[in-house]
Design a protein that fits this description.
The chain has about 550 residues and is of the alpha+beta class. Helix content is about 40%, strand content about 10%. The chain folds into two domains: about 200 residues, Periplasmic binding protein-like II (D-Maltodextrin-Binding Protein, domain 2, 3-Layer(aba) Sandwich); about 230 residues, Periplasmic binding protein-like II (D-Maltodextrin-Binding Protein, domain 2). A hairpin with a 4-residue loop joins strand 5 and strand 6. The two termini are about 20 Å apart. Keywords: Signal, Transport.
Amino acid sequence: MKKRRQLISLLLAAVMASALIGGCGQKTQNTQNSQETQEADTGEAPGEEEKTSDAEWDTGKDDTITLSVINNFYTAGEKKLAEEYMKLHPETKVVVDVVSDNDAYKAKMMTSLDGDRKNAPDIVHGNFVGMALTNNNVGIAVEKGYLYDMTDMLEEENPYNGGKVKDAFTDEDLQLVLSEAGGKYMPWLPFDKIGFALFYNKDLLDEAKVDIPETWEDLQEACEKLKAAGYDVPISAGPESFRLCSTIADAYYRGNTSDILVQPGDALWDESTMSANEDFEFDESNPLCDQFTVFSVERQMKYASENGITTEANKKIYDEFYTVGKYFPDNWIAADSTQAIADFEGQISPLLYQASFNAGMIMNDINALPEDMSFNWGTSQIGEFRDPPEGFGSTLRGYWDFGNIMSIIDTDDADHLARIKDFYKFWYSVDGAKMCFEETLNNGNFVQGPCVIKGVTLDEELEALLAGFVSAPAKEWAWATGMQWSTSADTPKYYDYMNQFTSGKITVDEYLENMETVYQNYNNESIDRAGFDLDPTTADQAKE
């Protein structure tokens, strides 16, 4: 533990001087509905020697690593990685288990990590472990022994990258992982980032004499003008578009950041990793000022339990969201984003709010349109309020965060763990990451966004498109607003209330009143799983 804290402290010190002075999961789209398990080919690469002499495991013993992933996102690349790795290490089979969709994946995590974990995979989407087992708290997933802490692994040599594991990443990105995971552990290493942007059809906007929106007021006015011009759905949106509400919530709540940070005297306090929290006050002139602060989930839950969702703050936030959300299509929150994308590509909707993990597909689709159906298009960030409402900051920060969050399931089998870590290092090397991206794109699969591993770049056109998703990153305030905050049992109710609200069938007061029970049910489940006593100064024990 002392060594781990020393490593984290050194990392934090290297980052803070430059980054803080200079600046303050997800719902994914899947196209298959069945679950499949696939194994890569084990043929040897011509002219390559097996790497066995310096292996940290028993090369005379066969073993299997299982990589469990959600369909379509990097799956082609991951299969290629497995195939090439087995050419180097034929004693280790790598199985790529492809699960059909998000819900099936969460169910798999719950069943496979229950009890003795005999059927548990080895490398998983760590954020989905958090969603399934600890109500989005990845730090607690480490505490409970589900996920392996990679802190010490950062100092290990990566034989596939010519240096230490940490050398593949910027200090800033490693520190962000630490901050987002609760300030104590490294449950994953960064691979890529995702963001959200407004896609626009320039030809249709010009025809309707509408400027490209860049402010919140611009977006409101654009939707109003397009509606008047005859577009039934001026802005196409799918379930991921809830992030637009999160942007509005951040502009309001970030002034309260100091109230929900881990603080000196809290049981979780660690001076070496949380110094950014001390005496913190949000600086509106510096939108990056809070990026290395560490939120206290227990303080969040305490606030949520004491204040509920029917607050004046949330009324203001949802009132603002409604000014654009009322132009969303019917049933947007529960619909498949494929329809929203098709409406934009088919020029039914001039605007689309969408994530970078669909950007490559949209770019390819539009490039493939016949000449008589093609159109000029681009992406834009809605970066500010032109005239901020009372209580809101002027800068609108978007979602810009790590996308493919891959974690290792913890195990006491040292030989097996050494193999898992070695494959992970192979993947998170420059050559491995390039292979994963290139194979994925060549097979028509999605990539989530730009790669953060040093030395990995994409096709120039795709890089230029993805650059439009970069924004000052907002902190996550869904816990305060209730947006996407429901148990599985209550999710249909949440969808119904949200659709009634954005379609104008119920008022904001009625929406919040209806959501109060849904909100508290989720909070109570989160508190129970985490073992919180709602006193941050006392240590808690997460329930098994």
